[in-house]
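thought: user wants a sequence for this fold. calling inverse folding tool.
action: design(structure=
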C-alpha cells in the first residue's frame, strides 16, 4: 500500500555517537590507523610562542590538507564547508557534531606561519614512514618534470622596467633618482627565492640569448614565467620536478617547483645530491629523458659511480651532411680521421663550452670529391669533441644494452603516470597559490599525498574506491610485467 508522507521533525535532539556513524571500513579510519601524525607537533613547535592564546592543533591543519588532497577540493572555504557536513571528515579531524570547525581564513595564516621548511619536513617524515614500511628500494632513481599553470592571467604581464617605474612613482621622491635595474639584476632577485629551494643562485635562468620571460613579469604572480605547453598557447607557469624511487611503490623521494624559465635539467644535480644525502642511498642507475642529457649532468652522475641511463641528442640526423660518427678519433695523435682518410687537427679550444674544435685543411676539403655530402663550408669541415667525451661514450655504450631499453620503458610507466594522477585527481593542472614559496608548499603537499596513497595501500587498503574518485596508486600488473621483462 502507499505509505504516509514522511514527517519532518529535524529539531528533535538525538543521542548519537559520531564514532558509530562512520563505517568501520571507511577510508579515513584506515588513514588514521596507517599514517602516524604524532611527529607534527614537534615539527612545528619552534613556530609558536611560549605564551598567548592557544592555536588550532597543527595536526588538524595537516589533516584538513589531506582531506583537501583526497577529495580533490580547490578551495579552503569549500574544504571547511565539506568537512562541516561530512561525518567521516569530522571523525578524522576529531571534532564532535556540536563542535565548530576552524575558520577557513585560519588555514592561510597557519600556512604563512609554518612556511616551506615545515612542509618539506612533513614530506620527509611521510617518506620516512614509507621507507619503514619497505616501500623504498633505492637502487634506481628516476627524474622528470611537468609544466603546471600558474594562478595568473596573461593579461597581468607587463615589462619589467615598467613595473619598476610604477613602483618608484608610488614612493616619495628620493634624494637622487634611482637607476632602474637591469634584466640580470631582476633575474638575480628571482633566484634569491630559488636559493631557499636549494638551487645555486649563481646559475643564470637563461643562456646566451634573451627569453621573452626575462623582460616581462606578471603583476599577479611575479615568480611565474612564460611557458608554452605542447599544442597550447603560451601561458604563465612553473615546472614541478619529481625524483621517484625505482621500486614498485614509486615513492616520490623529492620534489621542487621552479619557474618555467628555469630549464628542466638545471636542478637535477641539486635534487640528486639532496636525495643521496637525506635518504643515504647508493643507487646504481639514474634514469631520465633527453632533456637531462647535458654534459654537466652526465659527467657528475658518472663520477659518482652511478650509471646515467639518459638519451643523448641525436647529432647524426640533424643535418644532411656526414654525422660525427663518420669521423674516427685517434687518441694517440689527437686527431679525427674523415671518411676519405684526411686528418682533422685541433684548431681551438672553447673553454666555456668545454670542447675542442677539430678542423680539416680547407684546400684539401674543397678539392674532396665527397665534399657536398660532408660540408658546405669553404673553410674546411669541423668536428667538436667534448672535454668529457669518455663519459659521453660510456653512456652511448649503455644504449645498446637490454637494461637501458628496459629503463626507458620503465620511465614511461613510473614517473609520467604520477604527474597524470596528480593533475587529473589532485589539482596539479593549475596551482591554487601564488609565489614561488607558496606553490612549492602546494607541490610538496601533493607529492606527500601521493606517497600517503602508496602507504595506505601497503597497509591493506587495496582497490576500494578512493575519496573524491581519486585513482589508486598501485602500478598495474601489466605495466609491472612490461618493465620487468
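)
observation: tool returned 485 residues.
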Amino acid at each position: 500500500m502507499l505509505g504516509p508522507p514522511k514527517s519532518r521533525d529535524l529539531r528533535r535532539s538525538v543521542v548519537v555517537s559520531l564514532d558509530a556513524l562512520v563505517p568501520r571500513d571507511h577510508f579515513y579510519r584506515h588513514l588514521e590507523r596507517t599514517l602516524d601524525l604524532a611527529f607534527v607537533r614537534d615539527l612545528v613547535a619552534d613556530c609558536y610562542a611560549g605564551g598567548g592564546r592557544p592555536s588550532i592543533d597543527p595536526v588538524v591543519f595537516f589533516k584538513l590538507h589531506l582531506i583537501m588532497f583526497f577529495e580533490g577540493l580547490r578551495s579552503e572555504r569549500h574544504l571547511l564547508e565539506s568537512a562541516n557536513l561530512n561525518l567521516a571528515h569530522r571523525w578524522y579531524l576529531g571534532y564532535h557534531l556540536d563542535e565548530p570547525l576552524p575558520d577557513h581564513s585560519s588555514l592561510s595564516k597557519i600556512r604563512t606561519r609554518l612556511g616551506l621548511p615545515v612542509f618539506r619536513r612533513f614530506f620527509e617524515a611521510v617518506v620516512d614512514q614509507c621507507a619503514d614500511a619497505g616501500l623504498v628500494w633505492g637502487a634506481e632513481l628516476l627524474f622528470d618534470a611537468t609544466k603546471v599553470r600558474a594562478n595568473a592571467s596573461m593579461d597581468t604581464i607587463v615589462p619589467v622596467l615598467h613595473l619598476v617605474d610604477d613602483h618608484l612613482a608610488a614612493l616619495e621622491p628620493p634624494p637622487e633618482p634611482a637607476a632602474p635595474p637591469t634584466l640580470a639584476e631582476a633575474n638575480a632577485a628571482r633566484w634569491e627565492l630559488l636559493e631557499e629551494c636549494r638551487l645555486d643562485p649563481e646559475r643564470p635562468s637563461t643562456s646566451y640569448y634573451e627569453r621573452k620571460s626575462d623582460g616581462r613579469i606578471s603583476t599577479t604572480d611575479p615568480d611565474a614565467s612564460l611557458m608554452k605547453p605542447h599544442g597550447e598557447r603560451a601561458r604563465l607557469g612553473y615546472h614541478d620536478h619529481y625524483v621517484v624511487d625505482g621500486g614498485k611503490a614509486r615513492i616520490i623521494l623529492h620534489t621542487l617547483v621552479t619557474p618555467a624559465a628555469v630549464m628542466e635539467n638545471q636542478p637535477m644535480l641539486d635534487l640528486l645530491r639532496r636525495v643521496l644525502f637525506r635518504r643515504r642511498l647508493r643507487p646504481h642507475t639514474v634514469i631520465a629523458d633527453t632533456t637531462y642529457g647535458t654534459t654537466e649532468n652526465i659527467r657528475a652522475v658518472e663520477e659518482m659511480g652511478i650509471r646515467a641511463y639518459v638519451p643523448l641528442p641525436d647529432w647524426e640526423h640533424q643535418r644532411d651532411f656526414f654525422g660525427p660518427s663518420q669521423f674516427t678519433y685517434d687518441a694517440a695523435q689527437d686527431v679525427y680521421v674523415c671518411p676519405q682518410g684526411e686528418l682533422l687537427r685541433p684548431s681551438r679550444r672553447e673553454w666555456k663550452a668545454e670542447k675542442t674544435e677539430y678542423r680539416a685543411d680547407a684546400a684539401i676539403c674543397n678539392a674532396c670529391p665527397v665534399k657536398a655530402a660532408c660540408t658546405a663550408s669553404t673553410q674546411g669541415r669541423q668536428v667538436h669533441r667534448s672535454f668529457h667525451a669518455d663519459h659521453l661514450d660510456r653512456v652511448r655504450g649503455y644504449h645498446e644494452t637490454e637494461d637501458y631499453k628496459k629503463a626507458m620503458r620503465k620511465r614511461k610507466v613510473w614517473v609520467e603516470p604520477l604527474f597524470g594522477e596528480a593533475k587529473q585527481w589532485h589539482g596539479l593542472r593549475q596551482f591554487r597559490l601564488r609565489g614561488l614559496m607558496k606553490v612549492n608548499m602546494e607541490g610538496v603537499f601533493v607529492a606527500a599525498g601521493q606517497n600517503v596513497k602508496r602507504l595506505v595501500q601497503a597497509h591493506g587498503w587495496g582497490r576500494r574506491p578512493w575519496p573524491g574518485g581519486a585513482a589508486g596508486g598501485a602500478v598495474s600488473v601489466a605495466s609491472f610485467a612490461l618493465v620487468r621483462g
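thought: summarizing for user.
answer: Here is the designed sequence. The chain is about 40% helix and 15% strand.
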